[in-house]
Amino acid sequence: MNMTERKPRNRGDKKRGRFGGNKSRRRGKPSRTRDDQFRPNQKPRPREQVEPMEALEMEGIFGSLIPEIQYALKKEGYATPTPVQAQAISPQVDGRDLFGSAQTGTGKTAAFTIPLLQDLAAEKINPEGRHPRALILAPTRELAAQIGD
């Protein structure tokens, strides 16, 4: 057998390769699963509850954005933000991190994209070189295509 050829391993072989198998590198102990990380007696932390906003407050959220973004939002048909957008945009514009969860179709993509566009518009572009200005990770191709549009 040449050095470039490899003999395929059978399922019965002890060693499964660098990442395969169900054993961790530590002396045959099984690898930890996600369920092992949570203790059954541990109580979940309470989530911060946000009070619903009034209509004037919700419209003020879009009003606090730069004029170019306001124009683009009006052109796309946004009149008032959805509840998830109303709760998410202001903290992000203030520079705070955010974790949000909502059903499909509630405007989550716009909730993180609008503040990102506001930050990118305020940032000075370096004419010397091209560097990434934002990194957006999406779990599916469909969502990546939606974000790209």
UniProtKB/TrEMBL annotation:
Biased composition (Basic and acidic residues) is annotated at 1-11
Q: Where is the composition biased (Basic residues)?
A: 12-31
Q: Which UniProt keywords apply?
A: ATP-binding, Helicase, Hydrolase, Nucleotide-binding
Give all residue intervals belonging to the Helicase ATP-binding domain. 89-149
Q: Which GO terms describe its cellular component?
A: cytosol
- Look up keyword ATP-binding and say if it applies: yes
Q: Name one Pfam family in it.
A: DEAD
Decide whether keyword Secreted is in the record: no
Q: Where is this region: Disordered?
A: 1-52
Q: Which Gene3D superfamilies match?
A: P-loop containing nucleotide triphosphate hydrolases
GO MF entry, a single one: hydrolase activity
**PANTHER family on file:** ATP-DEPENDENT RNA HELICASE RHLE, ATP-DEPENDENT RNA HELICASE RHLE-RELATED
Q: What is this protein called?
A: Helicase ATP-binding domain-containing protein
- Annotated organism of origin: marine metagenome
